[in-house]
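Hi there, hope your week has been kind to you so far. Thanks so much in advance, here it is.
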Amino acid sequence: MIRKHLVRSLVSLSIVFVMGACSVQTEEQSVSGVIEHSLQEMVGESVIMSSSNPNDYIAGSPEAYELILNTGEEGLHVLLQKLESSSDNGLREWIMA
């Protein structure tokens, strides 16, 4: 009886840990999606594509930039990860920085 209760408890704890890990991954994916969409919106603006100043792109899409800022610390981790894994040094990377 005790063994059966112990096994149930361990299975329940395992399920809780797996569910917690899934929710964290889903939140990170959501933050990453917001950042990616916002970056695409900023660099895709055809009106200012002639500028070489990243601040012009940020100023041209203040809502998209605000969305990135509102991702908070989780967004910071995603941005750092994207910067570290990128082999480019272009407009997107300057905006992320």
Remarks:
- Residues 26-96 form one domain.
- Residues 2-43 form the longest helix (42 residues).
- The two ends are 58 Å apart (CA to CA).
- The chain has one domain: 26-96.
